[in-house]
Amino acid sequence: VDELSDLFLGRLVELDETECIELLQSRRVGRAAYCDDQGPVVLPVNHQVVDGAVVFRIPPYSEMAAHLNDRPASYQVDDFDEFRESGWSVLVRGTATYVDPDHLPIQEQRPAPWPRGQRTLNIRITPTTITGRRLLPG
Amino acid sequence: VDELSDLFLGRLVELDETECIELLQSRRVGRAAYCDDQGPVVLPVNHQVVDGAVVFRIPPYSEMAAHLNDRPASYQVDDFDEFRESGWSVLVRGTATYVDPDHLPIQEQRPAPWPRGQRTLNIRITPTTITGRRLLPG
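ok -> structure tokens follow
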């Protein structure tokens, strides 16, 4: 790496948890991740943030559903500006569990998937860590 | 789910591998994923597509580097239109290996990370599967 030209590149700074949760709430789409015996799987869903946890809805008879039943899982959101070569990302790590929709009494707190189909299974990822980084423009 | 209102939602269609690779090549940022003993980790990087594999550069003394040495890994790219509630996503699953930069002879094929710092380690994810979906507007 040329050390002089490196200075024209952006600088990564850590985000605190409050900023991470605000950024998470600012997005309507993120990526749920789980591990199967072939490694990580990362798939976009529409989320809500409810009581500090991430909630989303998926089809009950799916690979994802089978792997999000009291298992480690992550949720990732980000946004980038290709012109300024900058952006941010947030990663929630924790445990995924099934949620009874009766535990999501407020309509606005219920996830609203964009795709049609029987996405009747509510999943909650309860965070153990929430970390994030912002890439400041160079 | 109200079956009538469900029809106003978007429809998911599978993408073929050629489309997936074109979409992967169309983006400058994606998300590398690996599994540690706490579950999946998903972090954005800047990629290149070289001979059908995904290549990116990371700091050599990092958690990510420790987990991408001949281990299962994934790479994910997507794009969404919040207004039309539509978009697409592509997931490359495979094995991550370290690459000698001499094996990336063409300058345009070398990944160019946006953040400054010693990102001297080239990682290649050689695909075992490449899958993708497009969410058509409702």
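The longest strand of chain A covers residues 121-136.
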